[in-house]
What does this fold into?
Amino acid sequence: MTKVLGIIPARGGSKSIPHKNLRELAGRPLLAYAADGARQSGVIDRLVVSTDSEKIAELGRALDIEVPLLRPAELSGDETPMLPVLQHVVAELETEGWKPEIIVLLQPTSPLRRPEHIRQAVEKLQSEECDSVVSVLEIPHIYAPQKALRLEADALKFWHSDGPGITRRQQLETAYAREGTVYAFWRETLMEQGSIYGTRCLPLILEPQEALTLDTEDDWQRAEHYLRVAQKELL
It folds into this structure.
C-alpha cells in the first residue's frame, strides 16, 4: 500500500497577515482547515506540521496533528524556499524508519480546500504518468501573460515577444496560475530530482470559487465571509 505523507508548513513569522497561523478564521484555528481536509480525504496516512514556533507546535498537537520536530532557524526565514523545508521533514521521518512514497503539500493559507481536492490530486498522481499534480486556476484573458507589460526606463514594454501582435482574445493561449490548494508529488521527485514539480507536472484545474489564498487582510476577511456562510448553510 502506498504511503502518503501530508505536510502542513506553518512558520511563526508572517508580515502580510501577522500571526496568521495562530489566528482563528470563522471561529476555528487556521490550521484546522488543512487538517480536516487531509483527514476527510481518506488518502493521507500521516499528517505533520513543519514549524519553527513552539506555540504553533502546541496548537498542532491540540488539533491532533503530528509535530515530529521544530524547524531549524536556517529554514525559517522570510525568503526560505519551500523545497528544503519539505526535504527536511521527509529526511527526518526517514531517520525514524518511516519512508513515504507520496508527499502532499497543504498550505494553511488555502482554507477553502476540500477533501476531494486532495483525493483527486493523489489519485491523478497514481493513475497517470507524471512526477507531480498541482492545483491551478485559469488566468482570465485580460491578465494573459502574452499581454503583460513592464516598465523599462518609465516606458511600457511587453514581457512576451508576441505581445505587440496580439489584438484579439482568440489569439491568446490559455494560461494557468498556481493557487496553493494542493501539491502532490512522488518522494523521488522531491528527494532525488530536487523538485516539487519534476519534469512532468499535471494540473488539477479548479474553479475560481473553489480557491482563495490568504495573502492580505482583505483576503482574510473574504475567507471569513465565505466560511461563515458555508457554516450557516450546514445548520
